[in-house]
Amino acid sequence: MRISPREEQASERPESYTRKQLFQIRLNRQLACVVFVIASLNSLAAFSARGREPDPAVTVRVLNYAGAKTSVLVAAERAAGQILQDAGVEVIWFNCRLDASSDSSIDPCRQPLSPSEVVLRMLTNDNRRGITDDAFGSAVPPVLASIYYEQALWLATRTGYILHHLVGCVMAHELGHLLLGPGSHAESGIMKRHWGAKELRLMDWSGLHFTPQQAKLIRAEAEARMGRDSKDIVAANPIDYDRTW
Q: How far is CA 65 from CA 190, 194, 245, in A?
């Protein structure tokens, strides 16, 4: 598009505009600058996202023997998944059917475990089997974790803490044991052995996380499992879904 010398000259004369018009021109220029900056940042973010390697993934088969409400279970999985995602690991959840009517030939939950899969059970207090009464979960690395749902429900009812926050953090803690291995308790953070008032407050504010060092180890283990052969899994296959362990 061309601009004739006359039009160009007229556009340079401020006296040809009212104060209101000049204010609007300046405002439009400022808005245009803001839009340009936002567009540039979005382009940079898109470029970075394309260039970044995808996070390693772990699949969790969830066995809800405790009869936890679906809404609570899904919200807890979302909370746990976010904690692990913050550590650089994606979690894929499979809420498995427990009835025997499902066709084992097509049900992914009844197939042998792949190297990147683990099992998480939601249990009642009747299934503790030697686990102390104050424990909210337990883990048997490398593939089996348990959550004692009734204990979490009792604490949430008694204290007012949000149930799915509590269950989600316990899930993340126990999955952390599966990925970090034995002896993985820490002095602080989500892998602390005993949670007090401080940890419960952090839990309710979504402030419990893995440490940077733990996150590094978790990512490395998740990547290693994705490249591992199925024969290296130390677990009974196929998993027996029709009874608690």
A: 25, 25, 10
Coil, helix or strand at residue 115:
coil
| pTM of the predicted model as reported, rounded to 2 decimal places | 0.73
Q: Is the dihedral of CA 227, 230, 236, 238 positive or negative?
A: positive
Would you tell me how many other CB atoms lie within 10 Å of the CB of residue 179?
25
Distance CA 41, CA 23 (A): 27
- Residues 92, 58: contact at Cβ < 8 Å? yes
Same domain, 151 and 124: yes
Domain of residue 46, residue span: 17-51
Report residue 108's pLDDT band, with 50, 70 and 90 as the boundaries.
confident
Per-position DSSP letters for 10-37, written without gaps between them: HHT-GGGS-HHHHHHHHHHHHHHHHHHH
